[in-house]
Amino acid sequence: SGLTPLEAARGRAFDLLAQHGECGIVDVVSPGLPNGSDTGHLALLGYDPFKYYTGRGPLEALGAGVELKPGDVAFRCNFATVDDDGVIVDRRAGRISTDEARVLAEALQGIKIRGLDGVEIEFIPTVEHRGVLVMRGRGLSDKVSDVDPHKTGTPLHPPRPLDKSAKARKTAKALMAYLEKARQVLSNHPLNKERREKGLNPANALLTRGAGHLPKLEPFSERYGLKAAVIAGGALYKGVCKAAGFDVINVEGATGTVNTNLNGKMEAALRALDSYDFVLVHVKGTDSASHDKNPVTKVRVIKNISEAFQRVVDRAFNEGTYVVVTADHSTPVEIGEHRGDPVPVVIYGHDVRRDNIEVFDEIACARGGLGRIRGIDIMPILCNYLGKMPLYGE
């Protein structure tokens, strides 16, 4: 049809905000730079990722409830499918279910490797194929390369030290030993044998990326004077917000998948607004559909989000709540990967300047009053309306 999924979906709640608010487009991190959800959320919350980002791993770990200590190294991890030669067939192992991932994770807990010089390694599953790998011990470094090449048809990349330090060499060696053992355990697991018999991709390897230590962020409440909470299904989004001092509100059925409990998340957000100044609600389903190159599902998810979000819009119109709708990155459905395209944004509030935009989509928002801004501009713009921005100069 030549339309983007957002244009095709025509979400009524989003269009209402566009008609009564101010629209624009956002270079989430930097113009033309494809960014991850980690750096994207940092930017949208007003933390320059070029200054504060220490890797995806520790943020995922925080969101998964892992208590990281100084010196721990955390990695984002995927269950994946590889062939006998170690070539990646599927980076997400057919989007293995969360329950199946937990079964495999339990088997990984039994891995014991000699000669790691006191290094302990733990795998924690999160949502579907996603997980966190945490390394603990003395003399570890986060200067270790990604095992995940971020594409299929490519061999696994062995972890390599990114500098000449003994710590980096030790970390890479220990990680390699663990991943090799994990591949053996996973390949022989009954669950994967069952998946093969059903014609499903086995989850027979782990892909690590985003090694990092715990980041140090100025608390959001001190930075902006706002008491904040987050509602999300995925560990990463909870982790970014926890690092900034947010409270996490867990919602039953918030799975971080295309079938998440949208109504429950919106109801929780409305309740939270009675106790918090700022509530971030994250929905993952649109991105998952894009990575799967499934425009039909993406349109359906957008429509479902809009329908559930309508109650939030109604409250905003009736009670003067400020609302911002945007995305943390662009994932074109025909490509299936992140790109550096700008994303649409709308800001609504009783005193927000209205422009003449009637619909919320990538094309219309480009003509809006906000123009083309950066992700780190959103919080100052919002805080200006909230009366939270100090005077600069005399």
Describe the structure.
The protein is an alpha/beta fold. It folds into 2 domains: 5-53 and 216-386, Alkaline Phosphatase, subunit A, CATH 3.40.720; 73-212, no CATH class. The protein contains 15 helices and 12 strands. It has helices at 5-9, 12-20, 37-44, 49-52, 56-63, 98-108, 166-187, 190-197, 220-224, 235-243, 262-272, 285-291, 295-319, 362-365, 378-386; strands spanning 22-27, 73-82, 88-90, 120-125, 130-136, 205-212, 228-231, 247-248, 278-281, 323-325, 343-348, 371-374. The strands form 3 sheets. Strands 2, 3, 4, 5 and 6 form a 5-stranded antiparallel sheet that branches. It has a 4-stranded mixed sheet with strand order 10-11-1-12. Strands 8-7-9 form a 3-stranded parallel sheet, with helices on both faces. A hairpin with a 4-residue loop joins strand 4 (120-125) and strand 5. Helix 2 crosses helix 13 (295-319), helix 11 (262-272) runs parallel beside helix 13 and helix 12 packs antiparallel against helix 13. The longest helix is centred in the last third of the chain and has 25 residues, at 295-319. The chain is globular, with a radius of gyration of 22 Å. The N and C termini lie far apart (54 Å). The model has no long low-confidence stretch (mean pLDDT 95). InterPro entries: Alkaline_phosphatase_core_sf (IPR017850), ApgAM_prokaryotes (IPR023665), Metalloenzyme (IPR006124), Pglycerate_mutase_ApgM (IPR004456), Pglycerate_mutase_ApgM_sf (IPR042253). This is phosphoglycerate mutase (2,3-diphosphoglycerate-independent). One of its GO terms (molecular function) is metal ion binding. Pfam families: Metalloenzyme (PF01676), PhosphMutase (PF10143). Residues 4-383 form the Metalloenzyme domain.
